[in-house]
Design brief:
With 281 residues, the protein is an alpha/beta fold. It has eleven helices and ten strands. It has a five-stranded mixed sheet. Helix 1 packs across helix 8 and helix 4 crosses helix 6.
């Protein structure tokens, strides 16, 4: 390609199969930017990325300028094990309490606020912070929200002095639905002039994920020396807990998420979900 497409990617273990594909050369045809959700979300908002994996709430906020890529997402049917609220008090006792929320997230912020308001009718004092697994709940806070690899570590290494709440499980209890945490989306102004190019990139991303899943053992082994998880832990997480197919049920779950986000003043308006061409695969 003469002009490489700017592709964004959230660098968490929940997309390790695709990370693996990229690491062995699968991203050579485009310019790849990797980072935590908050950073990647901001880059696509500012036009620095053409297509990217982004937080599902960010798609809603930018929906007038984005198209959703069909058939692929990051989701869980119920418990997600990598979005965790640690609390010194029962979750229904957090009204007015200080709750620290990670500065890496977007969707999880909204999800927590919806769950606490709708399921438990509490309104804490939320503070965005740079949290650490070493001291997960700051002394001046009653609870703390973690996402991604740090949350998975805390889930697997529980401490007796905290209560643990899995937000995927809490969402399922509230709505009876799966939760779609992240989606792939493309900027509309890029799609208008590069439809065929986007189809090619979408195929590469989809096929790259499938390649990583077909070689999941190799993908896991490639990171074991750098992460605090065992092969078994990652094997159970990837495919057992995390799933990547965006279905009609997933779209419906997103609509409920957006409706509740709007109800709780977390979205200015409910987006009209628009998909890129369904037949690119």
């Amino acid at each position: 390609m003469e002009n490489k497409v700017n592709v964004g990617h959230i660098n968490f273990l929940n997309v390790l199969p695709l990370n693996y594909f990229y690491a062995i050369g699968g991203a050579k045809d485009f310019s790849l930017t990797m980072g935590v959700p908050a950073v990647i979300n901001e880059k696509i908002k500012n036009g620095l990325l053409d297509v990217s994996l982004i937080s599902s709430i960010e798609y809603a906020r930018q929906s007038k300028n984005l198209l959703l890529i069909p058939k692929i997402c990051v989701r869980a049917d119920s418990a997600v094990t990598s979005i965790i609220l640690l609390s010194k008090k029962p979750i229904d006792k957090l009204d007015g309490e200080r709750v620290a929320i990670t500065n890496k997230s977007a969707t999880a912020h909204c999800l927590l606020k919806i769950i606490l308001a709708e399921s438990y009718h509490v309104k804490p004092d939320y503070v965005v912070e740079n949290l650490s697994v070493e001291n997960p709940v700051p002394e001046d806070s009653t609870a703390a929200l973690f996402i991604g690899d740090e949350a998975l570590y805390l889930h697997l290494h529980r401490r007796e002095n905290f209560l643990y709440y899995d937000l995927g499980n809490e969402w399922n209890k509230l709505t009876g639905r799966q939760m779609v945490y992240a989606v792939w989306a493309a900027r509309k102004n890029f799609v208008q002039n590069n439809s065929e190019l986007l189809k090619d990139i979408c195929k590469k991303i989809h096929n790259g994920l499938q390649y990583g899943l077909q070689n999941k053992a190799a993908a896991i082994n490639s990171v074991l020396k750098d992460v605090p998880f065992s092969f078994k832990e990652l094997d159970e997480y990837l495919g057992g807990v995390i799933k990547w197919n965006l279905t009609a049920e997933g779209i419906d779950a997103l609509k409920i998420f957006y409706q509740l986000a709007h109800k709780n003043n977390l979205l200015e308006e409910i987006p009209n979900i628009k998909l890129f061409e369904e037949d690119f695969l």
